[in-house]
Specification:
By secondary structure, the chain is mainly β. The protein is about 10% helix and about 50% strand. The radius of gyration is 18 Å and the shape is globular.
């Protein structure tokens, strides 16, 4: 079988409405992909930046897949959370990005968005600390239902990834 190694970092994020950020992440693949080693989802620590600029996570990513074909090439879905001074977490951004198909080093910027709620949702968010959220997280990376959502732009998440492919030519897979 052909193989793909994804090695790198979830570097950080900036441009979000609140500081003290953390990020939940999940790699999604098609049925022809089998995870050999690594963890396909996780969460970073909360970064408390001094200058409220960029949040630095430097969270490691290390995955090893065996594949039968390139259908279902990996995409990464993200959920960015902010922690307030009372320890409450609030969702401040959803995002997803398709990974590049070419081997080598890639710097990736993933723009994020959040649901645009009603005026009542915004008042609730201010006082209670929770805004509108998706019921089903599958909508983040699938375009089928996402187009109906009313969203507003949020910040940007930065990744540094190495993609290493093995035996693609041997099994007739072109990237």
């Amino acid at each position: 079988m052909a193989e793909v190694h994804i090695i790198g970092n979830l570097d950080g994020g900036e441009g979000f409405s609140s500081p003290n950020l953390s990020c939940k992440w999940c790699f999604e693949t098609g049925g022809a992909w089998r995870l050999l080693e690594g963890v396909k989802d996780g969460q970073t620590q909360v970064d408390h930046p001094i200058d409220e600029g960029i949040a630095h996570w430097s969270h490691p990513i290390d995955l090893h897949y065996a594949i039968k074909g390139i259908q279902g090439w990996p995409k990464l879905s993200l959920q960015v959370y902010s922690e307030d001074m009372y320890g409450r977490t609030q969702l401040v951004g959803y995002g997803f990005v398709h990974l590049p198909t070419s081997p080598g080093f890639h710097k990736i910027e993933c723009p994020t968005w959040q649901l645009a709620g009603s005026a009542m949702d915004q008042v609730q968010s201010y006082f209670v600390g929770s805004g509108p959220q998706l019921i089903n997280d599958d909508v983040i990376a699938s375009g089928s239902d996402r187009y109906r959502l009313q969203t507003i732009a949020s910040g940007t998440v930065y990744l540094s990834l190495f993609l290493v492919t093995r035996n693609f030519n041997k099994f007739g897979i072109e990237s």
